[in-house]
Specification:
Keywords (chain A): Cell membrane, Membrane, Transmembrane, Transmembrane helix, Transport
CATH topology of one domain in chain A: MetI-like fold
Largest interface: A-B, 101 and 108 residues
CATH class of the largest domain in chain B: Mainly Alpha
Subcellular location (chain A): Cell membrane
Organism (chain A): Paracoccus onchidii
Largest sheet of chain A: 2 strands, antiparallel
CATH superfamily of the largest domain in chain B: MetI-like
Oligomer: heterodimer
Distance between the termini of chain A: 35 Å
Radius of gyration of chain B: 24 Å
CATH superfamily of one domain in chain A: MetI-like
Number of helices of chain B: 13
Family (chain A): Belongs to the binding-protein-dependent transport system permease family.
Number of helices of chain A: 12
Number of domains of chain B: 2
Order of helices and strands of chain A: HEEHHHHHHHHHHH
Number of strands of chain A: 2
Shape of chain B: globular
CATH topology of the largest domain in chain B: MetI-like fold
Radius of gyration of chain A: 24 Å
CATH architecture of one domain in chain A: Orthogonal Bundle
Helix content of chain A: over 70%
Helix content of chain B: over 70%
Pfam families (chain A): BPD_transp_1 (PF00528)
Number of strands of chain B: 0
Structural class of chain B: mainly alpha
Order of helices and strands of chain B: HHHHHHHHHHHHH
Structural class of chain A: mainly alpha
Shape of chain A: globular
CATH architecture of the largest domain in chain B: Orthogonal Bundle
């Protein structure tokens, strides 16, 4: 029995230690930093206690406000489009008998490519002077667009890239869900004379709800973390039109070296996310639904 | 995961209506729609690869027809001022070591949590914490990692970046290995324990054979995500330890962007993902969908 307890602990402790040292400790550090002004002198951090002053600055930070708003718009619009297109593609693909593996292979590809490279690819295609998108527009006699330089268009351009990048992820999860649906129900529905639309509305959708929910949550989480593509495509600009929350933190913390203030911003974002998760868990648990 | 091309659903449907002309039209339309989406997905890849073979002038003139040249690739790989070969090596080292560590830590922890009778609160608080950490933008903790690593001399070191990547991908691996470890029958573990087997023996002889496909799926995805990761290396590494995404990012930040080189470097950096997709798609699909569909 003694050895059992030993191995029980020995197998779990590596994960615990890693989490403690690299997630809990940094969080405590971040929390401590957020009450200070920090200056780096000869690689030594010099802390200067400022109390809640860093937190008091948060509501007045225009960049943060723009970042939060853009992140919200970006996440909602991009994920909604991805879910919709992904679901349609999955519905079409699941009915394909020959060539399904081909479609799946092609549609998975963007998921595996670094966000930074996706950014590089689209930066080339979006270029005002020689980008292929403007060549297309010119062929059709339309005015070329300054995709990334026009403040009214930049956020949409970034959303288009994200939809291209991540629709495949929704597609893949929803396809797997559709493939695992029991076939006899559809068979019975067909015998009873249910139309395709009725099958979709009354059988597929209700049965797919858990998969749809999980896919939606996964995508939302990732969308709120968006950083790479935007870093490369626009750097948050023009102005603040594509500023997102990760970018604001990066800017304050690193580019401007406002360590204490950046820490306060990080803590605030983490707190909002943790509260959101706990609220969501409570809500689903209350309904007796299992996540 | 049903990895069958002919799901019973479609087979039954198509067999009955094999000679129905309107069904055939529907199928044709379906292929047309899917094909056009496939083109939308593939076109940007085609574009970046073709850009890698153009000269800067061909590129800036937006030429469709051009004489392919491999100067871009040569510059990126062999030019003395290019860091790309080094970035590629760094990405490999960091990706492989952190994947190795993630697999060991996650498999042990998943086995421990699901098969060694921990009280429920341990399981739930550890998984809950890992979910929260997974949802938080990495850039928030990257700041703290930077200050911590700097104070112990780990900034701009392989050790620091590997540790960061290991931690970053642990929640996903823990989640996935949890799904796979639960495929190991409890009775099998208990029987082995009664026979006097120690935990290492059980892990090696009972668990490992069953979770091997799961390990492949988790490992491949961890490696890809480490290869792709950007914000944390942006903060933690400098020139010597820079990875591929940092190298690409640098091209795009120059005043006059060397588009040919950027395209060539991008093309080379997509290669590992391409190869894995061709040869290990089964595992990638299994990994990405594990947990979402059960």
């Amino acid at each position: 029995m003694k050895t059992d307890t030993f191995w029980r602990h020995a197998t779990l402790w590596p994960a615990l230690v890693l989490f403690a040292l690299l997630t809990v400790l940094p969080l405590i550090k971040l929390f401590a930093l957020s009450f200070n002004d920090v200056e780096w002198i000869n690689r030594e951090a010099v802390w200067d206690w400022v109390g809640l002053a860093n937190y008091a600055r948060l509501p007045e930070d225009n960049l943060l406000r723009a970042g939060a708003l853009n992140t919200l718009i970006f996440a909602v619009v991009a994920v909604a489009l991805q879910m919709l297109i992904g679901f349609v593609l999955a519905l079409l693909t699941v009915q394909v008998v020959r060539g399904r593996v081909f479609y799946r292979t092609v549609f998975i590809l963007p998921i595996l490519v670094p966000g930074i490279i996706i950014g590089a690819i689209w930066k080339l295609m979006y270029s005002y002077d020689f980008g292929v998108l403007n060549s297309f527009l010119a062929w059709f006699g339309l005015t070329p667009q300054d995709w990334l330089g026009n403040p009214d268009l930049a956020l949409l351009s970034v959303i288009i890239v994200d939809v291209w990048h991540w629709t495949p992820f929704c597609f893949l999860l929803l396809l797997a869900g559709l493939e695992s649906l029991p076939d006899d129900i559809f068979e019975a529905a067909r015998i009873d004379g249910a139309t395709r639309w009725q099958q979709l509305r009354y059988i597929t959708l209700p049965l797919m709800m858990p998969t749809i929910a999980v896919t939606f949550v996964f995508r939302m989480i990732l969308a709120f973390k968006v950083f790479d593509e935007i870093y490369l495509l626009t750097g948050g600009g023009p102005g603040t039109s594509t500023e997102v929350i990760s970018f604001t933190i990066y800017r304050r913390f690193f580019t401007e070296d406002q360590t204490g203030y950046g820490a306060a911003m990080s803590i605030a974002v983490i707190a909002v996310i943790a509260a959101g998760i706990i609220a969501a868990t409570r809500a689903t648990a209350g309904k007796g639904a299992k996540a | 995961m049903t990895d069958v091309t002919n799901s019973p659903l479609t087979v039954a449907g198509s067999r009955r209506r094999r000679f129905n002309a309107s069904e055939r039209q529907v199928a044709l339309m379906r292929h047309l729609v899917l094909m056009s989406f496939a083109l939308i997905v593939l076109f940007p890849f085609f574009w970046i690869i073709s850009a890698a073979f153009k000269t800067q002038i061909d590129l800036l003139m937006g030429k469709i027809f051009f004489t392919p040249r491999i100067d871009g690739f040569l510059d990126v790989i062999f030019d003395k001022t290019s860091d790309f070969a080094r970035n590629f090596g760094n990405s490999m080292v960091i990706g492989l070591i952190s994947t190795f560590l993630v697999l060991i830590v996650a498999t042990l922890a998943a086995f421990s949590l699901y098969r060694l009778q921990w009280p429920g609160w341990v399981l739930h608080s550890l998984l809950g914490w890992s979910v929260i950490f997974h949802m938080v933008p990495p850039i928030t903790l990257a700041g703290a990692w930077f200050t911590m690593f700097r104070s112990v001399g780990l900034d701009n070191s392989y050790t620091g970046i590997i540790l960061a990547h290991t931690t970053l991908h642990l929640p996903m691996a823990l989640w996935m290995m949890g799904v796979f470890v639960r495929d190991v029958p409890k009775e099998l573990v208990e029987a082995a324990q009664i026979d006097g087997a120690k935990v290492p023996q059980i892990l090696w002889h009972v668990v490992l054979p069953i979770v091997r496909p799961g390990l492949a799926a988790t490992g491949i995805l961890t490696f890809i995500f480490s290869w792709n990761e950007f914000p944390v290396v942006l903060v933690l590494s400098q020139r010597q330890t820079a990875t591929v995404p940092l190298g690409i990012g640098k091209y795009a930040q120059e005043n006059t962007i060397a588009f040919t080189e950027m395209a060539a470097a991008s093309t080379l950096s997509i290669l590992p993902a391409f190869l894995l997709l061709l040869f290990a798609q089964r595992f990638i699909v299994r990994g990405l969908t594990s947990g979402a569909v059960k």
